[in-house]
Amino acid sequence: DRTNMFRLIQRCCFNTPFKLQKLTGARLPLCGKNKSAWSSFSLRLRRDAHPLSTSLSLRPASVYTAKLQAFHTSLPIFKKKTPAEPEAESQKSWESLKDSPKPALYLSLGGLIPFVAVPLAMVIQGTYCPELAFAQVTYGAATASFLGGMRWGFALPENSPAKPDWLNLANGAVPPLLACQALLFKDITQGAVTLVLALGITLHYDISLLPTYPRWFKVLRVVGTVVMVLSLLATVALKAFLEAEQSDDRKTWQN
User: Fold this and answer.
1) Rounded to whole angstroms, how far apart are CA atoms 105 and 211?
2) Mean pLDDT of the region 23-48
3) Once rounded to an integer, what is the mean pLDDT over residues 57-83?
4) Where are the domains of the chain?
5) N-terminal to C-terminal alpha carbon distance within the chain
6) Is Protease set as a keyword in this record (predicted)?
């Protein structure tokens, strides 16, 4: 019974090899009656078996821990990506146009008609008209001056969050100066590019430097500025393209 119990303890606790179990099992009956010999033999057996057990048990543990660490580090790869926030912000911005007052919305969209009408008329006629281009630049200069004056109207009231200091009032005077310079150019291309710069400056003022404007007004300003800039650039592109075609036609007629 003792031999069987000792073998079971050996297999469960000490994890000794099979050859060592056979050797110890054969010697156990010789030491059964002597308690001192039994205790010394058991101590010696534990000392001999302990390094084997630790060396054998540490190897699988290290392998398992390495696998668990690899699995743990690979988990973030399979995480679900959060939805992009800019898409939600853009949807809110477009929905905020519904909150804009009807007069402000309709007058702003109606004010874009002269910008769009000039390049559209040139495309329909197939010829570049300098008078229409100059009229577009003149109307753009008036619009830039109006947008610059809005800054004065926002900063002058007593309860306004924008103070009538040098920064706000000087920034409001920059777009009219650029608009006047655009009208002084003989070339329409230079005047249109100057107006694009003036419109970009006014948009930067209204979006970044004056955050107390309502959301619907900022969205309306972005839409209006994009349409005006694209219309001016379309006129410049049509000028270069249609004038080149007209010069080629003149050469063919002369020949």
Assistant:
1) 20
2) 49
3) 47
4) 135-243
5) 126
6) no
Give pLDDT tens digits for 162-219.
Answer: 888 888 888 889 999 999 999 999 999 999 999 999 999 999 988 887 777 888 888 9
Q: How far is CA 202 from CA 75, 79, 175, 222, in A?
A: 49, 43, 7, 10
Q: Is the dihedral of CA 213, 168, 207, 217 positive or negative?
A: positive
CA distances 107 to 104, 172, 214, Å, are 5, 22, 17
Return d(Cα 117, Cα 231) in angstroms, integer.
Answer: 9
* pTM, two decimal places: 0.62
**Single-letter amino acid code for the residue at 76:** P
> Percentage of residues in the chain with pLDDT exceeding 70?
59
